[in-house]
Amino acid sequence: MDGKYHPNPVRRVEIPKENGKKRNYKEWGMGTMGNKRIGFIGLGAMGLPMARNLLKNDFEVHVAVHRNSEPVQELKGQGAVVHDSLEHVAAGCEVLISILPADMEMQNVLLDAKLLDALNGDAVLVEMTSGSPAMMKRVHDVYRNKGIRVLDAPVSGGTIGAEKGTLTVMAGGEADVLDDVRRVLEAMAGNIYLVGSVGAGKAIKAINQMLAGVHMVAAAEAFALAQKLEIDKDILKQVIGSSSGASWMFLNKVDAMSDRNFKPGFKQRLMKKDVQIAVDEGRNIPLPLAGLALQLYNMTEKDIGEKDFSAIAEYFVGDE
Ligand code: NDP
Predict the structure, then answer these.
(1) Among 22, 205, 272, 273, which one carries the catalytic annotation?
(2) Catalytic: 205?
(3) What is the tens place of the pLDDT at every residue in 186-212?
């Protein structure tokens, strides 16, 4: 590996639609890759609804309990095959999907010797965690040495996108690997972009998260200033919405800040992890805004780590 990304232009992969709706392969009676056997690891806020969508689209989904058995029981009721270990999930699967919290879990799970031994040489690992490019490349090196193909495929779109099957996939890898698993991704995603080689997906995701993390802090500061100046939140939202200071984050999160409704969503500790990835990857170049946002997320994690990351507003507004 030369450490560089392929110079190919970004490729947006069209999702087939029928009457304006995404094609459902089950309804069409065409499991185009047969009953493609999929092992799914990481059944959390994102993974559970993604696995549900695979089952709805007639894929054969294989899972195992980690700590929380509820998602596995639910998926079993919808037709998933339940195993007692991850190596049994991996054995015989054509596609292994992982969407785990962070680098540490990617390392512990994906580089586990038993899991690696269980995987068929012609399987594809579709790695969807928001991890670091460095960890993704490390996993890729190990899998490539075993002849197993890898697609780096982090997602954006949140839990709502995961439920609706409208996620955006930032795919890093070879075009033919993407083509081979495209139908699987289409069951979960509304947009699929081929952005470069393995590691480039994680890199773009980290850049997106750096922006989102900084924008949330800016939105929280704007909200706090509006409160101090006794400006009505709805008027502010309307006016900013058609002015140059608008951001998606401000317009979509100011209501939650005002209502103090911080049910996740996207947990603050995951955003902290993502901004940390951007800062680590960007070491040696100045990233002052990301650095400051990271400090704020670090300082507040103990109190709000399990809440939605919009709870950072509490730091600026306080308890008044
Ligand atoms: P959660 O914390 O909700 O879920 C993580 C899942 O991973 C849980 O099911 C957990 O199981 C499982 N897990 C952890 N360790 C292991 C292990 N060693 N073996 C098997 N399973 C394990 O996280 P999310 O689903 O919210 O996020 C997952 C990834 O997706 C993160 O990288 C996140 O940054 C990213 N992401 C999240 C979005 C969001 O809105 N939530 C949006 C876009 C990306 P158990 O609970 O049993 O421990």
Answers:
(1) 205
(2) yes
(3) 999 999 999 999 999 999 999 999 999
Instruction: Tell me if 181 is assigned to some domain.
Output: yes
Asked whether residue 13 carries a pLDDT value surpassing 80, the answer given is no
Encode pLDDT of 51-97 as tens digits: 999 999 999 999 999 999 999 999 999 999 999 999 999 999 999 99
Ligand 1 atom at shortest distance from the alpha carbon of 273: 34
Residues 6 or more apart in contact with residue 101 via CB below 8 angstroms: 42, 44, 129, 270, 273
Examine the domain organization and report whether 217 and 131 are in the same domain. no
- CATH number of the CATH domain containing 26: 3.40.50.720
Q: Which domain holds residue 262?
A: 204-317
Q: pLDDT by residue (tens digit) across 222-269?
A: 999 999 999 999 999 999 999 999 999 999 999 999 999 999 889 999
Task: For residue 286, give the CATH number of its domain.
Answer: 1.10.1040.10
How many domains are contained in the chain? Answer: 2
E-assigned strands of 65-212? Answer: 81-83, 95-98, 124-127, 149-152, 155-156, 167-172, 189-196
Give the residue carrying structure tokens 């103990």: 302
**Index of the ligand 1 atom closest to the CA of residue 64:** 20
| CA nearest to 48, candidates 83, 25, 72, 26 | 72
Residues with CB under 6 A from ligand 1: 41-47, 66-68, 99-102, 105, 108-109, 129-130, 155-156, 158-159, 266, 270
